[in-house]
Amino acid sequence: MLHLRAICPPEHTVETLELLRTHPGAAHLIVHRGASVSPEGDLIEADVAREAADDIVDALCELGLDRSGGITMESLDTALSDAADAAEEAAPGEGADAVVWQELLGRTGEESRWNATFQAFLAFACLLAAVGVLTDSSVTIVGAMVVGPEFGPLAAIAVGVVLRRWDLVRRAAVALVGGFPVAMAITLLGVLLGSWAGLFDPHAIVNNHQVDFVYQVGPASFVVALLAGAAGMLAMTSAKSAALVGVFISVTTVPAAGYAMVAAVAGRWDRAGFSVLQLLVNLFGIVLAAAIVLILRRRKQRSAALLRPLSRG
C-alpha cells in the first residue's frame, strides 16, 4: 500500500473526494478542511493499492492538483485493515508488478543529478577499483562496484527515453559524461602519487590475472550488461530495491574506469583502451535493457487499462 496526501483547493475538494471514494483501490479516506496553509486548501489523505496508484495520480493531475495544490506518496510497510485488504484485492493486477510512473520519475530524477555527493561516491569507487587492480584483489573490485552510484543516471536515461522526458535524459547524461572523466582524473592522480611515493608498482598489473576480466571485452560483457540493466530496472519498478545490490556487483563500469587509469600509468595502452571499451559496452547495455523492460511493462500496463472497462462491462 501507498499513503497518498493531496493538497486540494476548496473548489476541487468535492471532486477529489468523490474520485477517491469511488475508486476500488483506495481506502482510509480522510479530509482536513482548511489544514493547508501554503498553498491554501484542504488536506486529503488516503491509502491506495500500489497497482491503483498510477490511475489515481493521473486522475488527480487531470483535476490540476499537481499545479494548484500538491500530491505526495510514501510506502507503507504494514497496513492492518480489512478495508486496505479489500482495496488491494479490488485493484487490478499485482502490487509487485505495478509501476507507479510518477514515483519512478521522481526517484530517477533525484538520483541523476551531478552533484558533489554523486561525484564523491564515483571518485571513491574508481579509487577502490584502482586499489583492487593494483593488489589483484577481486574482493576490492566488488566493493568498488557496490560503492559506484552510476546506475541512477543510467536508469534515468532509460526512463527519460521511454517517457520522452528529454530534460531527464540530458541531466543524467551530464552526470555520466562529466562524472566519469572527473573520477578517472582523480584516480589517475592517486595512482601517480602512490607510484611516486613507492606504495605500489603500476607495472604489477601485468601479472595480476585475477582482475583480467575487467578489461577483457567480449560478447559475455554485453550479455551481462543487458541482464544487469533488465534486473536493475525490474527492481526499481517493483519496489524490490534489495535486488539492486546484485546488479551493482555484476557490471564492470567503475572497475573498468579504475583499471584504465592504472594501465595508462603503467604504459599498457592496449589494456587502457579495452577497459574504456568495457566501460562503454556496459553503460550502453544497461541503458538498452532497462529501456526495453520499461517499454514492455508500459505496454502491459496499458493493455490492462484497456481491458479493465471490458471486464467491468
Describe this entry's structure for a reader.
With 313 residues, the protein is α+β, with helices and mostly antiparallel strands. The protein has two domains: 2-97, Alpha-Beta Plaits (2-Layer Sandwich), CATH 3.30.70; 104-300. It is built from 13 helices and four strands. It has a four-stranded antiparallel β-sheet with strand order 2-3-1-4. The chain is elongated. The chain starts with a strand and ends with a helix. The model is unreliable at 309-313 (pLDDT under 50).
Taken from the alpha-carbon principal axes, the silhouette is elongated
Q: Catalogue the unreliable spans.
A: 309-313
Determine the N-to-C terminus distance.
Answer: 27 Å
Order of helices and strands: EHEEHHEHHHHHHHHHH
Number of helices: 13
Structural classification? alpha+beta
Tally of extended strands? Answer: 4
Strand order of the largest sheet: 2-3-1-4
Estimate what percentage of residues fall within beta strands.
Answer: 5-15%
Query: Can you give the mean pLDDT?
Result: 85
Tally of distinct domains: 2
Kindly state the percentage of residues in helix.
55-70%
Largest sheet: 4 strands, antiparallel
Radius of gyration: 24 Å
Please render the helix and strand layout as text.
Elements: E1 2-8, H1 13-22, E2 26-36, E3 41-48, H2 50-62, H3 65-68, E4 70-75, H4 82-90, H5 101-111, H6 116-135, H7 138-147, H8 151-163, H9 166-196, H10 219-237, H11 244-248, H12 254-265, H13 269-312
Helix pairs in contact: 5-8, 6-7, 6-9, 6-12, 8-9, 8-13, 9-12, 10-13, 12-13
Pfam family, one: DUF389
Transmembrane segments: 116-135, 141-163, 172-193, 213-235, 242-266, 272-296
Keywords: Membrane, Transmembrane, Transmembrane helix
